[in-house]
């Protein structure tokens, strides 16, 4: 990160803040100032004929309400009616020098302790599963209570497992809800590809860029994709076909954070969703207000506190802005 035009006291406070930031070494930008996200590392699947079989009560999700990737898994867990099948622990949103803390290390409202491993931080769980683990200590984590290990820490794969692998144990209506239907897969995959690169991860590329050029490239591509999504969603309730799919879930978690966080903290400020994108705005509010799976898994306090508190290289004084008011408008 360049200290460019910073005054001496700013450099010092930024340097100190860096030491407190959990993974700044692993989060650092490329030589051109661009941000590249590292791949997830635990990639097993729950399957009926494999090591990790679908069973009621066998698995646990470690998540943060702040994290868009983790929230994908929370939304699909509720949509599929898996609340009694898969338990959940929510970490504190204040990700500090040891990474994500549980409530015993940082008792932030609506965060939990870890009932399985009594961990203080998410990193303890990674070391329990793999004592030599060298990657990032990310959420979500799908944990197997039977073999005491991490099954998978990649949200896009976890939501696919939740969509299909428990269906034989679920009531008919929940089993029949298919967020990745065969006939729409190509369309969903194609949309996911560019939405991931330029929107879900695009906002991070904008926010974590450490050169003007890298920032401008990223932010322009965020907004060209929003323009494209606005056209797709005009007159429609869902992105693909006439039904809710995982594409909606994956986009929603970024759009709901956009005005409260990404406009300010990640400098994605060419337009806001509420003032610049009427179709995306309506789509987002319909999902939020009409589906408990979207509304009940959304905690704006955790979302705003996490970003503004946990990236002191961007926001050294950790001040959390009060607006926008409200975080989401009514329908
Ligand atoms: N590819 C992962 C990304 C997960 C991820 O990056 N999570 C962030 C929170 S939003 C995290 O836990 N970061 C902690 C760190 O990097 O130390 C997924 O989609 O599951």
Automatic annotation (TrEMBL):
Pfam families: GST_C_2 (PF13410), GST_N_2 (PF13409). Residues 170-307 form the GST C-terminal domain. Signal peptide: none annotated. The active site is at 67 (nucleophile), 204 (proton donor/acceptor). The record marks 262, 307 as: Lowers pKa of active site Cys. GO terms for molecular function: glutathione transferase activity. This is GST C-terminal domain-containing protein. Coiled coil: none annotated. Glutathione binds at residues 100, 136-139, 154-155. It comes from Phlebiopsis gigantea (strain 11061_1 CR5-6). Gene3D superfamilies: 1.20.1050.10, Glutaredoxin (3.40.30.10). GO terms for cellular component: cytoplasm.
């Amino acid at each position: 990160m360049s200290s460019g035009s910073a005054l001496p006291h700013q450099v010092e406070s930024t340097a100190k803040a860096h030491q407190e930031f959990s993974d700044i070494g692993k989060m650092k930008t490329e030589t051109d100032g661009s941000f590249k996200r590292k791949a997830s590392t635990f990639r097993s699947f729950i399957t009926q004929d494999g090591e990790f079989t679908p069973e009621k009560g066998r698995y646990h999700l470690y998540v943060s309400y702040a994290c868009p990737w983790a929230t994908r898994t929370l939304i699909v867990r509720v949509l599929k009616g898996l609340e009694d099948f898969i338990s959940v622990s929510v970490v504190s949103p204040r990700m500090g020098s040891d990474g994500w803390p549980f409530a015993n290390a940082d008792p932030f409202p609506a965060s939990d302790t870890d009932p399985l491993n009594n961990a203080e931080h998410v990193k303890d769980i990674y070391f329990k599963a793999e004592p030599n683990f060298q990657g990032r200590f990310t959420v979500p984590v799908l944990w197997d209570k039977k073999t005491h290990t991490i099954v998978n820490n990649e949200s896009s794969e976890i939501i696919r497992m939740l969509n299909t692998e428990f269906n034989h144990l679920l009531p008919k209506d929940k089993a029949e809800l298919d967020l990745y239907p065969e006939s729409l897969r190509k369309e969903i995959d194609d949309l996911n590809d560019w939405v991931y690169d330029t929107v879900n991860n695009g906002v991070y590329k904008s926010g974590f860029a450490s050169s003007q050029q890298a920032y401008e490239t990223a932010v322009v591509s965020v907004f060209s994709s929003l323009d494209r999504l606005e056209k797709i969603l005009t007159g429609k309730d869902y992105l693909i076909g006439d039904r809710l799919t995982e594409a909606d879930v994956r986009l929603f978690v970024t759009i709901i954070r956009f005005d409260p966080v990404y406009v300010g903290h990640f400098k994605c400020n060419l337009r806001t969703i509420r003032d610049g994108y009427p179709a995306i705005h309506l789509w987002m509010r319909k999902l939020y207000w009409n589906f408990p799976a979207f509304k009940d898994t959304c905690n704006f306090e955790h979302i705003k506190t996490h970003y503004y508190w946990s990236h002191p290289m961007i926001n050294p004084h950790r001040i959390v802005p009060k607006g926008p008011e409200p975080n989401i408008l009514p329908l």
